[in-house]
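Researcher: We're teaching a course module on how sequence relates to structure. For the next exercise, students receive a sequence and then see the predicted structure as tokens, so they can try to spot secondary structure elements on their own. Here is the exercise chain.
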Amino acid sequence: MKKALAFALLVGLCIYSYIHTNSTDQDPYLITDYSKLHPVKVERVVTGKEEQQLIETILEAKEKNLKVSIAGQRHSQGGHTYYEDGIVVDISAFNKIVSFDPSAKKITVQAGATWADIQDRINPYGLSIKTMQSQNIFTVGGSISINAHGRDIRNGSLIKSVESFKLLMADGQVIQVSRSQNPELFRLALGGFGLFGIILEVTLSLAEDELYTISTDVLARENYVSYFTSKVLPDRDVHMHIARISVAPDSYLTEMYAMNYRVDRTMPLKGNNKLATKEQGVIPAKLLFHLNRSFDWGKQVLWDLQTSYFKKQDGNRISRNNVMRSDSEFMEYRKAGRNDLLQEYFIPVEKFDRFIEVLGPLLKEEDLNLLNITVRYVNQDQEAALSYAREDMFALVLLFNVSLTDSGQEKAQQGIQRIIDAALRQGGTYYLPYVAYPTVKQFRSAYPEQASFFDKKRQYDPTALFTNYFHEKYKGE
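Model: And here is the predicted structure for the students to work with:
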């Protein structure tokens, strides 16, 4: 009876919390992004429909001396997709699949197409995307503008699978960009946050879809580097990998679990590759994650359930395309005055333990509400001008729940800047799509090619027609 009553009270608390985190404090007449920080009035939002319409929009902006920013799903969190009194070009409706050649394993899509759109088209042909974020909700144009990466440990960051793209420049011209045509713009615009023009169409190379067997290992964090470098990376049949570090009180930053996706050749892919179409258990998962935000015991409950649940996935089979359709709805959070904000740090493999050893005390000193840490592996990739992986690195994605008040933001910024300093001391970098907490000095230290990047920006777009708040803060003189 007591257990039933306690359970009922817990459910009631969860429901109450769920209801009260689905309010929003955003003025519908202001433009912002996922961060809900710094909303501003814009001149207008233009919904992208066709290429000529977008050309005319750019020529009008040029004539009227207006600024242009480009938005997709608006999940970048540092003002990358808007600018005060400027035009926001929303590319999300500019989303057709232009061509698809299964035999050549290539597809061309308009920039507003999502990864889900591509998966739906290519899955029946036994093909898959090489690299993308863990979720498939983002636009292709947005993803290549941040040079995204994901769970794949063999294909590198997203730039590696881009064959070419069409780019609408500040003078209204549309040019073809690839490694052989306008190659300088290839490495500038990919990972260039919309500062060199509007990406109109993208041609991607594709991979074979595969059937994987899942294996999950629970291990001490101090053993992770050895585990990954001796057991995971040398096993060429492991094509995808993700790990999580505990933020629960009983095992804070000392315990991990790692999930590996190993090619399974014992069963045919066909018949085992139906795409998952709907997330399961969204509301219970959402409620549990809110307890994770609110209480230390909630963090413990969630960690215990996660490790138990994922360990039970051992031996299950899943297609590559379904691995790349990770759940996301349960993490949606809308509460007035607060938000969940991501930060991401790239740490050289051999410096992983040292970074965590410094990170733990720092987080407690700054009293930051850390909700989750995921770990991915990123291959060395210096093709993009603003490259975040100058060597093979672990990407640590940290999710914080923060106050949006001035004092709350000051506190969060101070803590994040200390974490960035710790990452830089280990030869690491940080990811640029998130809230612009880093100082200009930190940005320049993490991205030594930034001076050349902005010089080229001034060369290709001398009036800064394409701009956003990332450009405003970090462009220099």
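Model: If you want an answer key for the exercise: The chain has a mean pLDDT of 89. The CA atoms of residues 339 and 347 lie 26 Å apart.
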